[in-house]
Amino acid sequence: MGCNIAIDGPAGAGKSTIAKRVAKELSFIYVDTGAMYRAVALYLQKKGIDGTDSQAVADHCQEAEVSIRYEDGEQLVILNGENVNACIRTEEVGNMASKTSANPAVRAHLLNLQRNLAEKNNVVMDGRDIGTIVLPDAQVKIFLTASVETRANRRYEEYLAKGEKADLEDIKKDIEIRDHQDMTREISPLRQAEDAVLVDSSNMNIEEVVAAILGIYRDKVE
């Protein structure tokens, strides 16, 4: 079994950015499970499936063949043979993923791939139920969070940096809705694993968060 670092937390907490940096520092493989769920959500969205229609989601999610490929150290999310990295980060896809990721059929469809990757490699994996469900035996578990205001401001700045229009209050409301959906869903709700270390990044920059997690890793593993 590889050495596994599980990073969980709410939407907009910076899990992907931090996980990538930690993986690079340790020469581990980064596995963005949220991107995999977003890829399935993108497929269902393009099919015109209602994300709240659990039967329709279950019936069609198997048609979404999701795989991961690495090129020059970058993770590429492949949906039915197509690189969808550039298509899966919209708010619409994120909201769809929040609804469909709780579907048991969707979770079963992706769970084996995630566990196989972790069994064969040293990985940093981020999501919402990595430490509780996907990799319950991970050597290091982190619960990364930040205040709603901090997460909304970060997302707002990201949109502005891309030259896109954004409304801060709308982003804040979307994050609050996503939090509620993720924490109250029946299957694998977002929660901190009992043995996870809480890292609140509200008043920390990226370098400080990465350093904190690397310190936790070294205390537990090295």
TrEMBL record:
**SUPFAM superfamilies under this entry?**
P-loop containing nucleoside triphosphate hydrolases
Give the EC number: 2.7.4.25
Single GO molecular function: ATP binding
Q: Which sites bind ATP? A: 9-17
Q: Where in the cell is it found?
A: Cytoplasm
Q: Which family does it belong to?
A: Belongs to the cytidylate kinase family. Type 1 subfamily.
Q: What is this protein called?
A: Cytidylate kinase
Q: To which species is this protein native?
A: Blautia segnis
